[in-house]
Description:
Elements: E1 22-28, E2 31-36, H1 41-47, H2 50-58, H3 66-79, E3 83-89, E4 93-100, H4 106-109, E5 111-113, H5 120-125, E6 129-131, H6 145-148, E7 153-160, E8 166-174, H7 182-215, H8 219-233, H9 238-252, E9 256-261, E10 270-275, H10 281-293, H11 295-308, E11 312-314, H12 318-323, H13 328-337, E12 342-348, E13 355-362, H14 372-409, E14 419-426, E15 436-443, E16 449-456, H15 461-478, H16 485-498, E17 505-515, E18 518-526, E19 532-534, E20 540-542, E21 562-566, E22 571-575, H17 587-600, H18 606-614, E23 624-631
Antiparallel strand pairs: 1-2, 3-4, 3-8, 4-5, 6-7, 7-8, 9-10, 9-13, 11-12, 12-13, 14-23, 15-16, 16-17, 17-18, 18-21, 19-20, 19-22, 22-23
Helix pairs in contact: 3-7, 3-15, 7-14, 8-9, 8-14, 9-14, 10-13, 14-15, 15-16
Amino acid sequence: MGPPETDDRVRRAPADRPAAPVTWQATGRGxxxxxxxxxxxxxxxxxxxxxxxxxxxxLGRPGPDEAFDRVAxxxxxxxxxxxxxxxxxxxxxxxxxxQVGMPEPFASERAMPLTHSFSRHVVVAGEMLVIPDVRDDxxxxxxPSIEQLTAIAYAGAPITDPDGLVVGVLCAVDHEPRDWTPSxxxxxxxxxxxxxSEVCLRIARASAEEAQRAAESAxxxxxxxxxxxxxxxxxxxxxxxxxxxxRIVTTRLADWCVVTYADxxxxxxxxxxxxxxxxxxxxxxxLADLAARSRTDLQAIVLAAxxxxxxxxxxxxPARLRGRxxxxxxxxxxxxxxxxxxxxxxxISPVRRRVMGAVLLVNGPDRPxxxxxxERVAAEIGRRAGLAVExxxxxxEQRHVAEVLQRSLLTELPALPGVELHARYLPAQDxxxxxxxxxxxxxxxxxxxxxxxxxxxGHDIEAxxxxxxxxNLVRGDAYGRTDxxxxxxxxxxxxxxxxxxPAAATAVLARVRQSWSGYQIxxxxxxxxxxxxxLPDGRVQVWWVxxxxxxxxxxxxxxxxxxxxxxxxxxxVLYTDGLVEDRDQLLDDGVAxxxxxxxxxxxxxxxxxxxxLLEVAPRRSDDIALLLVRLTG
Length: 633
């Protein structure tokens, strides 16, 4: 079918430029947008951009990368595409950082020439490309991958570095023409954002290593900066990181200091102050509070750092230093703390390459002026402080993206006759905020309902990818079958081994059906904490059963099924170990504590009961999934 002759959405080439080849790009079923493809020198200038290439090369030439391979596998499983690839594109080659389904020799070599690359067009365009059939695209129809890889349908989402430059592409490829659905496009976009976060973190880590190598030129610098780096790396709380910075520099470099920074231009500054003498802690806290409110003196410090872009040493003497402080109380505290020589070091973001704040270092009048060597140390302190600010920002962004990914993999609870469902998922407070805990519930054609809670080892992107596979295997294998849960988990073990899914997981799978006396609940437990049942009279049963191995481990015997009959008005509680595990107590103690809270909170409605039960967790060091099944009758 040819292009429409008239369409308001068509963008035409300027009259002063020769007509270039055009690309038909799908924007939804039946809708096509005509785009001009600028090739030649323009394409090469984008691919060879030195700033972009620096980011690509900071990531190194990748070999097999488990994290990116997991993302590629997730693309294959969730998008149902034969090929899933995480690629990095430089000026000459395309590196396969993660892949599944690629034939040899590309799968082993992890590289392919740009002549075979569809993804270079995503880099040049700077946006996602969705192509139902590349043979109809003038840019791609001569690509050797069409024959060598049987690559017909292509969807690629950009992977960006901290500066927003496209360094790679997360793509799905099909062997036949395909209209990519909006949900598939959204999933690719979200997974590409996860890859971008990983790329940014790796680039930031590479920048930190470069800074560390520069600091090794002097033993004194190395000692101070190593301690500083270790202290900042031990926390992602940026306020605490800046306090630690102040304590370290006042121990070895200056008598007292003021640290100020802002996450974004125009936002309220964060200010902290520290003194070598612990007795002056109250004065420093007051100084920080006044400096944050009195923007005049603070802005002068930051402007000096921004204007020079490097440390600035001053040896003006107490009188001139005090004269530059307009606030009388600030001047009084500074004089009391000791005014002699000073130095301002900019806090520079190693990612965004801009001044985000400053460190003011001050020595008393009895100390010598700051030296050139100390100026170099101060410059390195500013860089490391900038890295800490960026790491905190990237960490928050990654936690947000990862949590969105986690929640996208958790199903919405269905409306079931006679059954009221409530669920909660809470990520761990430490780590990537994404993990392998999951819950699920769905109706069966025979009128019964299957409910499940499971926990894949780990709380990272790999665990989430495995969790998605495991949950889909449970659904796909169990739907429409009337087998007992033990039989279904036995089949699941076989599937995990046959498909080579690297899962080590616990799970409880239960079938709920109405019976003559109320409800029949049949369940199987694969190494998971026991279900709890809240009876209508307020009593709580803990359904301990003989332990059976985790999912994913070699199985010799079929799994068992336990059946219980419960009255209407009962509530079944399924949960993961993050709710009851405490390294200082036995698991039995945590389960007993949960049962006691469940008994005391029996009168609360479902949502409130979930909130009360979540308060049982001793600490959020692990993910928590919680599912309440209320049998209303």
